[in-house]
Amino acid sequence: MPTSRAARPPRNFTIPTSNSGRGNVLKPGKGVSVYYDLQPPNHWPEHQHTTAQIVIALDPVEAVMRWEHGGHRRSETSTVPHVWIVPPGSPHSAEWKGTAAMLVLYVEHDYIREECGCDLAAGAVLSLGLLARQDYLITRLCQKFHDLCHRKRSHSGLLTVASGTLLAAVLINAHLLRATGPAQERGLGENRLRRVIDYVDAHLRDSLSRAHLAQASGLTEHHFSRMFKASTGIPPMKYVWRCRIHRARQLMETGQWKVVTVAAETGFCDQSHLDRQFRKEFGCSPGSVVPIRRAS
Q1: Which of the two residues, 289 and 71, has the higher pLDDT score?
Q2: Is the pLDDT confidence value at 182 over 50?
Q3: Strand, coil or helix: what is 283?
Q4: Which region holds residue 145: left if phi is over 0, alpha if psi is between -120 and 50, else beta?
């Protein structure tokens, strides 16, 4: 995918091709190299890399992804922010039908073995929104790269690579856990899962139950719970709790909300309930993440 114009590639790295972005270059690192840009519509013909490739659409975009591994061909289409993981040596092609912030992480085989203790044997397309709600670190790192793509901030090359390396480790481990965990049962289809995610997002301030989510999916409560956990690795109500606490932190970090208002907006009983759960998840109070206003 995107091409480096000025960077020296690390060992065992294959230079990507077909850069049509707005000028960012590849940031090479030891184990993980990082490319980010505001990518216009583009088509990348079939190619392959000696590294694993993690392509992240940080904005909604219609993307068609095709890849091959172990003699099997896969094809998926997404219209929402997503993560596409491609194993090393896997022929793949892609098409973006719109402009969106793009982050590409090229991850060397030795790094995957050292970090995860195994090989990356299979590719997948995962919902970025779902992953971000399961791990707030993904939310923070992706927001930093989103801001970089949209020119809202700048980073040194060293910090960019460090952030990309950390994000690669988190995403690969999440993918491996999903692929090899105990929930081997077939999960919810993409459309059902999207309906449930959208329903939770729209009703965070309301009283949500497992029955409400099952109704949104169109399944019985027991069947829904089992399939939701197979898809996400966590039970439905734990997912709701993570959505609430992560959304609460996002609101507090804007510096524009009071704790009591955030509690009401995200479905907590009251301010003290939010405070307890916030400390449990993040180890600090909600007020401690409010940005410090500098005197002008």
Answers
A1: 289
A2: no
A3: coil
A4: alpha
Task: Give the strands of the sheet with 92-96, arranged side by side.
Answer: 42-47, 92-96, 63-69, 72-78
How would DSSP label each residue in 127-183?
EHHHHHHH-HHHHHHHHHHHHHHTTS----HHHHHHHHHHHHHHHHHHHHHHHHSS-
Pure H helices in 20-156 = 109-116, 128-134, 136-149
What band does 12 get if pLDDT is binned at 50, 70 and 90? very low
The whole-chain average pLDDT of the chain stands at 83
| φ/ψ (deg, to 5) at 53 | -130, 130
Confidence of residue 129 (pLDDT cuts 50, 70, 90): confident
d(CA 137, CA 130): 13
Distance CA 283, CA 278 (A): 7
| 195: phi then psi, degrees, rounded to nearest 5 | -60, -40
Q: What is the mean pLDDT of residues 46-64?
A: 92
The two structure tokens encoding residue 137: 């670190």
| Better-scored residue on pLDDT, 170 or 26 | 170
Pair 237, 224: CB distance under 8 Å = no
What is the phi-psi region of residue 142: left when phi exceeds 0, alpha when psi lies from -120 to 50, beta otherwise? alpha
pLDDT tens readout for residues 274-294: 999 998 888 889 988 888 765
pTM value is 0.71
Q: Where are the alpha helices (DSSP H) in 3-126?
A: 109-116
